[in-house]
Design brief:
263 residues, alpha+beta, Deoxyribonuclease I, Chain A, 6-stranded mixed beta sheet, 25% helix, globular, magnesium, Endo/exonu/phosph_ase_sf
């Protein structure tokens, strides 16, 4: 079982309920994004939780980004970044090997139209797709699999966000972003695992703005994905979004996305 969640600041999430969630989860691996902390800044129950091994890849820009992988067993190997000088120290990608499966935690830049943030997002996407192509070939040549979990910051289809009509010119649902994600699936050959299990429903959404009543009205976006090589996707048994029972019980503006894979 693998879970991914953008924690929107790991120290803040820890105060709001992440620690209790981690203690209760049945996941074997948990991928976190937007941790925004160095290991030394985290309380012991987050930096060294009982029963977990922690790999943290912070950003070189203090208080920004950051990704992590929590696992029940120690990883065989860890790689930070994806061989791109601009982004390898930006806290946006870490990959850990567990036997025949590599699990990555990704925090793709969020972007903002007509700003340098969108340009950064575009540069990231341009560098990341060739890596995905190359990495799939490498793992499959070795009889292994890869799953890239995380906040991809793109809603792929109209079914992936509630108010798609009013967001067609906003970052996260731009035609060129959606086309890029289609290339991840169609050209690079990866599988959107949750969508493959739940092909005919809207959502399930994984992010809701804190503004207004977006959460109460389920006016969300599905931007948190588990994207895997085909053989691993074929072993996916069920998936769910662990949506909080109420707005006041949320410990992030995202919800954990969990997939159960068969052995």
């Amino acid at each position: 079982m693998i879970t991914t969640v953008n924690v929107n600041g790991l120290r803040a999430a820890a105060r709001k309920g992440f620690v209790e969630w981690l203690a209760a989860t049945k996941a074997d691996v948990v991928c976190l994004q937007e941790t925004r902390a160095e290991l030394a800044q985290l309380p012991a129950e987050v930096a060294e939780p009982e029963g977990w091994h922690v790999v943290l890849a912070p950003s070189n820009a203090k208080g920004r980004a950051g990704v992590a992988v929590y696992s029940r067993t120690a990883p065989d190997a860890v790689r930070v970044g994806f061989d791109c000088a601009e982004f390898d120290a930006s806290g946006r990608y870490v990959e850990a090997d567990f036997g025949p499966v590599s699990v990555a935690s990704l925090y793709l830049p969020s972007g903002q139209v007509n700003t340098p943030l969108q340009e950064e997002k575009e540069r990231f996407m341009a560098a990341f797709l060739p890596y995905l192509v190359r990495r799939r070939a490498e793992v499959e040549a070795g009889g292994r699999d890869l799953v890239v979990c995380g906040d991809w910051n793109i809603a792929h289809r109209e079914a992936d966000l509630k108010n798609w009509r009013t967001n067609r010119r906003n970052s996260g649902f731009l035609p060129e972003e959606r086309e890029w994600l289609s290339r991840v699936f169609d050209e690079a050959g990866y599988v959107d695992v949750v969508r493959s299990l739940l092909p005919d429903q809207d959502g399930p959404y994984s992010w809701w703005s804190y503004r207004g009543r977006a959460f109460d009205n389920d006016a969300g976006w599905r931007i948190d994905y588990q994207v895997s090589t085909p053989a691993l996707a074929a072993r996916a048994e069920r998936a769910c979004v662990e949506r909080a029972l109420s707005h006041d019980r949320r410990w992030s503006d995202h919800a954990p996305v969990t997939v159960v894979y068969t052995d």
